[in-house]
Write a structure and sequence with these properties.
It is a single chain. This protein has 535 residues and is of the alpha/beta class. It is built from 20 helices and 15 strands. Helix 10 packs across helix 11 and helix 11 packs parallel to helix 13. The longest helix has 25 residues. It is globular. The N and C termini lie far apart (60 Å).
Length: 535
Amino acid sequence: MKLLVVAVPGSLGVAASVAAVRVSPWWSAAGAPLILLTLVAVHDLVQRRHSVLRNYPLLGHLRFAMEALRPELQQYFIERNFDGRPFDRDTRSIVYERAKGTDAEEPFGTELDLYRSGSEYLVPSMAPRPVRTAPPRVRIGGPDCTRPYDMALLNVSAMSFGSLSANAVLALNTGAQLGGFAHDTGEGGLSEYHLRPGGDLVWEIGTGYFGCRTDEGGFDEREFAEKAALDQVKCVSLKISQGAKPGIGGVLPGAKVNAEIARVRGVRPGKTVVSPPFHRVYSTPRDLVRFLARMRKLADGKPVGFKLCVGSRREFLAVCKAMLEEDSTPDFIVVDGAEGGTGAAPLEFADHVGLPLGEGLMAVHNALVGAGLRDRIRIGASGKVATGSDLVKRLLQGADYTNAARAMMFAIGCIQAQRCHTNTCPVGVATQDERRARAVDIADKSQRVRRYQQATVESTLQIMASMGVDDPRGLRPDMLLQRVAPHTVRSYADLYTWLTPGQLLASPPAEWASEWQAADPDRFTHPGWSPGQRA
């Protein structure tokens, strides 16, 4: 198809040029534009900056023309107030600009409706601080960890090889290596594309145990230990659930399961891979805590944690009780918000199941503080994290560091065509079609990943400095305000209950007391309910 785009105007251009010489000079009016189009198409095919143009020479320019018109089109609708309020700022544009190194100041005011109920505002200080030059790192490693890892404030979130192309994974990991931040593998196993560039890895293990899977689909301790010993693997994460589809397993369409994917995952090629919704390695909170300790031992003391989209606060409190009774804790917990994205999930799950990231973060943070465990466990946040203001809000809500998936995909060229599940991604990011995947130029896109991460962390530090803070630990809930009614604004310190260290053990507040009492370290189900029982 791409060659036809070059061949057709080229052939017609040559024919018109010949006709101009032999028939009439008027044919040159057609020949010259056709030759010019041919040269543009050839340039599109060989250039490495734009994936859209590499896969869609000539036609791809229509997209850039629409992007160039977008500010004027937006202003047209704003002036006529067609939807009653200004358009929200396009977060993708922020990511693209930072990835390309063109992020700059813009004229005029905010594009957000500051008087809309639910709007949030960070609180600037009358005594701002100098912006720190060296970004802080977060030490991951509790008392049972012998090989701690210093995590960056922003890292690549979980995206599997298989869901993403080989070139996309190479670009992400190379960017992580260049920028000194971590790259979560996703649950699809460890591939050579994760390992080849040498970037730091968080190896995620899902319910399918890909990469350390027995023939029967269980957890293979020997294979896990071998791969966890690799130098690039800095942490290991057990995926309990993800925000876009909590309570169901991942899906990789059979069209994407080629021989290489099948080898990495230990499955049959050409068959749709559906991960189970539950783990075989644990069935109770206590089992989970013990298994995490076992994973850390098999990983020779490297940091071990788990990822979840929070649902029942009582269930998480049950895990906290199990940690206390076993005197064993994970080194980190990643909270995934329900607003997080995925390449394939039922729409009902994506829209209606699980807590949003902010509420999940505050639930986990407060539970760990109240149980006296917070100083042993670091909290990561993932789920639609893209800008410096996003990072600051998540740090305020209880996170120690953040992970971004969708924004990192934007940095390597994703245009959110939403064709991830079809294997026909137009820019080669979410496909296993090698011809399409070649559009992702690793050298260029890896630099974009590095630039995006660096610029976003710098933005985070700049915002913090404007708030009078030079260290994330200085951020407080009263520094984030929310409009709860047309004429009422309250801070997060007032809107939510923030527990003090050990408060659940000594005297739980009323809104936590019943759930803390009902939490059972030996069962996830509510002790007052039986299967099939209804209210």
